[in-house]
Design brief:
The chain is an alpha+beta fold. It has five helices and eight strands; from the N terminus they run ααβββαβαβαβββ. The longest helix has 46 residues.
């Protein structure tokens, strides 16, 4: 009698594990679907919407090397490209999690005297348990995703991960420290010393960017003759440079005009 009870308990535990893993996989698949929909929306914006002017890899400068005057659109395109890069990373992690839980699901323990057939396409699952000479058949619904269901075309979008720009270069004086640091008019800065990078829209904006500009001014005043690391985007390129504030023949310590986006 005790052996029969133990077998029944083991069977119940096995079913519980299967149900739990199936539920986790369903949630992960829903997350994957949401990421794919968001990616599709972003790609539509870049390929056929307002963003098609620059697209996924288009330059923000014209044929003569001058920055495009469409600053607001450039910012939106930059945000879309940055978000696509984030989706890439999130998608890869979700697929790894799905694979892990699928393996766990397929390796879930079952009773030696238990035969189980699990649903692949929402079909009814029948579990038959033999206890002594009695045959007991129970029908239960368990949606166990197949490996094929969890597979989809990998997201392969080559986008360099960058932060959201919060200030831009409006003027660079010739011979200035900024000129020496290879800063150019139209550069979009997403990191200036300890300010940035920011990857969420709530971290940037009209008022916040003005605050970031004040922080930049403080860093410049306190960093005379010291290198300040800067990261910026120029066209389709991401550039890292160092700016050394110092006294020179012109005004200020850096010789450029920085404005909030």
């Amino acid at each position: 009698m005790t052996d029969i009870n133990n077998k029944n308990n083991n069977s119940d535990d096995s079913i519980t594990v299967i149900e739990d893993e199936a539920s986790i996989i369903k949630t992960l698949m829903a997350t994957r679907s949401d990421l794919e929909k968001e990616l599709e929306s972003l790609m539509n914006f870049l390929n056929s919407g307002d963003g098609k002017t620059f697209g996924l890899k288009g330059s923000f400068t014209d044929s003569e090397g001058y920055p495009s005057p469409h600053l607001e659109l450039i910012i939106e395109v930059k945000k879309a490209r940055s978000r696509i890069a984030h989706i890439q990373n999130d998608y890869k992690q979700v697929m790894k999690d799905i694979e892990f839980h699928l393996q766990k699901l397929h390796k879930s323990p079952t009773n030696k005297n238990q035969s189980s057939t699990f649903s692949i396409n929402n079909t009814t699952t029948t579990t038959t348990t033999n206890n002594n000479n009695n045959s007991n058949q129970d029908e239960m619904k368990i949606d166990k995703p197949s490996v094929e269901e969890t597979k989809s075309k990998p997201i392969e979008v080559e986008v360099e991960k960058i932060g959201l720009p919060f200030v831009y270069i409006d003027l660079v004086s010739e011979g200035s420290p900024s000129d020496k640091a290879n800063l150019k008019k139209g550069d979009l800065i997403f990191q200036f010393g300890t300010v940035g990078p920011f990857y969420e829209e709530r971290q940037v904006g009209d008022n916040l960017n003005s605050n970031h500009l004040q922080s930049i001014a403080t860093i410049v005043r306190n960093s005379e003759n010291k290198a300040i690391p800067i990261k910026l985007s120029r066209g389709t390129s991401v550039i890292s440079t160092s700016l050394i504030p110092r006294k020179w023949n012109g005004q200020g310590l850096i010789g450029c005009l920085i404005k909030p986006i």
